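Same chain as my last thread, 150 residues:
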Amino acid sequence: MTTLAAPLAPPLALGSTLPSAAGFARAARDAGLAACLVLFATAIAWAEMTLQDWIPAVLDFPADAEVVTDREIGSTVRMFSVSTGEESGPLLAAWEEALSTSGYAIQSEAEELVEGSIEFSGPGIANAKIVANRTTENGQTLIEFDATLN
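reply #2:
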């Protein structure tokens, strides 16, 4: 039986050099910067997809909805806004129906829906208002939520 074995190369062959300390430092810096960028991009993507926990789960948000504002003031006041390319009239009508059939009390009247708003209260929410009457610079509808929690 014949065994073929290649001779082991010495760790440092004649004429080879180790990378300099500056080279290692540069590589470490670049790796750290890349990790920070990945974490930052992940945080932005996660923030764009996350709704505040007080928003009723029965509200079906459009696929293109993007979070514009997400604020908590004190322990009870909440402000939240999203932009979407969807038309506000049909979206608010669907949301009002979903809220009313899920046990939320609706305070809006028919003419308020035309104006683009819904006022409601329900589990954990003393009062809230959804307003969709503004258009962003790029032509999307801005939908704003203001609420006072119990």
